[in-house]
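Pipeline run #58 for the internal structure catalog. This entry was flagged by the ingest filter as a single-chain record with no existing model, so it goes straight to prediction. Upstream metadata was stripped on purpose; only the residue string is passed forward. Reviewer on rotation: M.T. Logging verbosity set to normal.
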Amino acid sequence: MAEESNRIRSVRLLCRHPKHLNKGSDPGTHYWLIGSPFLPPLTIVSILRSSSSSPDLRKESEDLQTFIPKGFEVIGALASGDATDARAAIDAARGLRKLLYGGGGGGAGEDQPLIGAVSGPDSGELRFFVSEGGNATSLEPVTSVVHEQHPEKLVWENGCLLRCELPIKLPLYYPLNNPTDIEKAYVRATEAVIAKLRDPQAVYLLETFNKTSPDLPPPAIIRGVQLDFCADLSKIRPLTKGDDGFDASSLLCSYFSNKSKAGSEVFSVENADTIHVGVLFSSVGPSSAFAPVAEYLPAQEEASLLVVDIKLDVLCYSSWNLPLRYAVSSLIIPGLIDQLNNLQTSMLPNLLAQHPQLKCYHFSPPGILHPVTVFYELSFGETEMKQVEVRRSLHSRLGLPYDRPLLRIANALDFSKLKNSGIVSLQKGSALLRDVHIGIPSSGITGGTVSLVQGSYEYFHYLQEGYNDSGWGCAYRSLQTIISWFRLQNYSSIEVPSHREIQQALVEIGDKDPSFIGSREWIGAIELSFVLDKLLGVTCKVINVRSGAELPEKCRELALHFESQGTPVMIGGGVLAYTLLGVDYNEASGDCAFLILDPHYTGVEDLKKIINGGWCGWKKAVDNKGKNFFLHDKFYNLLLPQRPSMV
């Protein structure tokens, strides 16, 4: 017993200390610790906040059932307080697991150790305790917390994604004199689909989702009769060749591994190998000789038909060592069933009054190692207050900031655009270069701090798309680059406006006369702020300097802008306009450099030519030859677009 009590217990922490665990948080608030049976025991992948203090475990289980992909699961809970609160947290986690996975111990078995964590009410420091299996009385303090240096690699080097899309039409017959019976019809239709998913005649087709690899393994077929549900995924071992020979059900998920990516992979949800799972239903028996059969079911009374179109879209996480048969039976099928039940709960209350339009989306928000799955109601727009509140609640659960649009539909993973090398351009058919500043040489400022634009943008410059704006369109091009940033960060879905559309906007707000449309008149920072306000609802801060010699004095303020707002800045002075992407500033010496994206470039989209020609690069206010980059006899306006505070 002494040896047992003195053993070292270690928790592996993959996520950072969540920002939503603030000092003095509500003592009743619980946070669920998420792990995976495919990772080392007591490994915490993420920490999710409960939907409310003193959480309703049944509601929590319904929310988390489809929110967390199969292959990840609740392995404990966190509360504010001391060891007594750790015991209460473990009890809450055990109760939630029972609802989520059934039985007393849940998906990973009765002997699954659970983690109870507490956050000090004053210091915010985390302490961990472990309860062995179903024994609620024992509570061991964790003596070692390991902070994984490369958490993405641990998760995605050893695992992959499985995705199954399944469109379904549910025919619902209900009597006209008793329309409430439609609920019973919906339940029966759902039960019929679940029975088909588990039917021995159901066939599951698995194939690689990576269409860019030249050497693809052939698809694998798993038949329902071979399916074996296993609640304890951590105890599944690879299958061996038996008396019946080696068939597809004996293959591991690693059969679809893309070996060519080894050693060069960027580990993330977006770059994970994905196995596509298709479902083929069969209503025909095993006999090869059969005749068509029509089944006639006479209605007992006057009835109506409502066909409900739904699309299941399940995303799961699996170890490469998991046999395909278990990947289907213990991940995909339970995931499909959970989504069916979730949709049934969501759609039944308003099925006749307002046919809900629920659609599934998968997200990979920053700081969360695993994907999350959300159903959005599409019958109203993204800016409608109810939808905004749904996203705000999700931001709270995930610990995401409330001033970034991270869970909008435009942020959802688009598997049609995921390739080996990453994500292709979001703008279909776009030939524009993106993020041209990445990889350019350093500024040469000694001891400086670099503050850069956050996120992606597209490089707009003279003569693009055959439009001759040389000599007058530099501010228009800078504005287009800024708007592309707001598009790519999903603050707006509008197309980047043309010169004429920019002019039209200025006329509509009364800043310009109608004759301005189609002209070659210059615009400046003030006009850009008007257009951003009208088209995007974006406000701007404007900095005025009387001479280019004063610009270095604004470096501290510009550095703060890039650190807090992260948007591209337009600099206008005299007859020239530039886009500013960052500053390198030494606060002690005052030395500084400006990362300039020059819209006056007139060549083709050649990154090497642009960088070597200095069209994107660091510029000092005074170079080594004593030449001033910013003119001392001209005033300058700096336009600093502000991020909208939105979710």
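catalog note: Residues 595 and 618 are 4 Å apart (CA to CA).
catalog note: The chain has three domains: 2-149, 158-284+302-417, 449-641.
status: ready for reviewer M.T.
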